[in-house]
Amino acid sequence: MNNNNKLAIITGADGGMGREIVLEVAKQGYYVIMACVNPSKSQDLCRKLCEESGNKNIFAYELDLTNFSIIDKFVSEIKQLCMPIALLANNAGVLCWNRENTIHGIEKTMAVNYVGPYRLTHLLLPLMGEGSRIVNTVSCTYLIGRVAEEPFYRTKNSFNRFVFYSDSKLALTLFTLKLSEEVKDRGITVNASDPGIVSTNIIRMGNIVVDKLCDWFFRPFIYQPKRGASTAVKLLLDPELKGVTGAVYANKKRTNIPKRVLNHPKKEWLWKATQLLIAEIEHNQH
What structural domains does the chain harbor? Predict the structure, then answer.
């Protein structure tokens, strides 16, 4: 398949699932950008994926979703390629062990899992058109997430990594639903992929004993990265899903989104609050 004049961007491309998504997309002949926090460390992986896929057009670019200046630099470099974006996989994500704030003061889990993808996607939208596909990696934990009173800073909350993670994945799911409505008339589809519990570094607790016990106990429920990535790959590449938008998929099948999420009372508020947050940070940068 000749897609070498079409651009595919995968964030978190040097992670377990990211690698599998890059490989499958590259096999289809796309010009692939691996968006990584440390691209110099990903050069070996980039070369291996070129060999495995038979596609020489795979390149690693720097992208740190916690830093607006680096996001801007990444977008500028993408624009210089003068290629339409066919596929965007917002795959990068974190499950922080401790409370951290970004240079902009945003709680890191929310910054990487939601605010960064929100801003990156909006900056790249002008390069997308009819047939472009956006896939956001969410989690089943969005079902227990909530939109906090101050979702970006959480100054009134003690840190709980799973609570903050669930909330960020709900935010990304609401973003998926809202964005799908906004760009539907342009022929751009926006969907969410729930990979399940995947054996990647994101689920490690940082304790050798605990990690081994959890790995043994949960092994029947834990997917390998290839299987975890398969749902995102289907949403990105399956011709039968052309035109499908505003959906959440898991195990390569469409799932039912609860009405409380579809009609979430804070969906519009969160969208506008994120716009205001980004505008304020951009103003302060200049």
Answer: 7-285 (3.40.50.720)
